[in-house]
Amino acid sequence: MKELNGKTAIISGGAEGIGFGLAQVLGSHGMNIVIADINAEQLAKAQQHIEGLGIPSLGLNLDVTSSEQWGDVAQKTRARFGKVHMLVNNAGVGGAPGPIQTSTEKDWRWIVDVNLLGVVFGAQAVIPLIEEHGEGGWVINVASMAGFCSLPMASAYSATKAAVVAMSEGWHAELKDQNIHVSVLCPAFVKTRINLSQRNKQARYQSDEAQEELSKRDSELNQQMQSVIDAGASIQLVGERVVEAIAAKELYIITHPNFRWPVDARFSAISDSFHRAESSPLLSEIVKQKMPGLD
Ligand SMILES: NC(=O)c1ccc[n+]([C@@H]2O[C@H](COP(=O)([O-])OP(=O)(O)OC[C@H]3O[C@@H](n4cnc5c(N)ncnc54)[C@H](O)[C@@H]3O)[C@@H](O)[C@H]2O)c1
């Protein structure tokens, strides 16, 4: 994709997994790559690898839950490469899977802070730098198929990913006129270490009391998930699909067309509920009204 050549991308969580795959693919299209990650050890390895491929790059420490650290990443990127053209809000955690009755407040705050507010802070720090040069650019938010249809035992994860889809739809409309294209990547299973996200859990979200219960629960659920994730798409394929989709100016980036049926089933269920509401005697007046301000 020739428009990417010589431009600069910031990728949160770029030291491993999907973010690292994207770093390599975007770099192969001539982009300067900034990988920003909470895991210093992985970050050093990843940056060394990217440099070894001859891709101009910068590795920066970032915990996406900190708006100050996001500001620092944005400014250091501008200082090194002059302009910023692309933000990939990729960093995310799987959280602590399990039923709502036993999920802990700290785990909800962890997943909401990383998967939802981390995306908000990234957008607030980086979009102004994309706007300032007037050349346009891209924002790619990494959600999940779980953002389209909620997964049982993973309601916190699904809630954050549905939020990322919703934010992306809003920003897509808000930023269109500035030639900033917003996309949302919604993969099903990809072969990464997402099911071992606890490795990156910040101390403030850990609770001794809940930890024992969680690790028991996690080990069972993770064992079940492991084989599915191991059979998932490769990070290279996902990276290449993202480039193909942004070249086609897609809003929703689908990597697993075989996962269409649960999404179709959800839309049909919602549509059926509208039909039943239309025939409710209680709503006979409302059904005739025009939508305020949108006709
Ligand atoms: N792997 C899948 O099957 C799958 C499917 C759908 C969506 N996703 C999404 O893809 C994104 C990337 O996940 P992955 O599968 O590559 O997982 P991964 O665990 O392999 O990689 C996540 C990366 O994010 C970093 N990270 C974690 N917390 C961070 C924080 N607070 N600040 C900065 N960096 C942080 C990690 O160090 C790691 O480098 C996530 O948003 C995830 O929800 C993954």
Give average pLDDT, whole number: 94
CATH architecture: 3-Layer(aba) Sandwich
Distinct small molecules bound, one entry per kind: nicotinamide-adenine-dinucleotide
Biggest sheet, spatial arrangement of strands: 3-2-1-4-5-6-7
Helix content: 40-55%
User: What is the CA-CA span between the terminal residues?
Assistant: 39 Å
CATH superfamily: NAD(P)-binding Rossmann-like Domain
- Quickly count the helices: 8
Q: Class by helix and strand content?
A: alpha/beta
- The stretches of 5 or more residues where confidence is low (pLDDT under 50) are none
Name the beta content range: 5-15%
Q: What is the CATH T-level topology?
A: Rossmann fold
- The figure for the number of domains is 1
N-to-C series of helices and strands: EHEHEHEHEHEHHEH
Backbone shape = globular
Number of strands: 7
Instruction: Specify the CATH class.
Output: Alpha Beta
**How is the biggest beta sheet arranged?**
7 strands, parallel
Radius of gyration: 20 Å
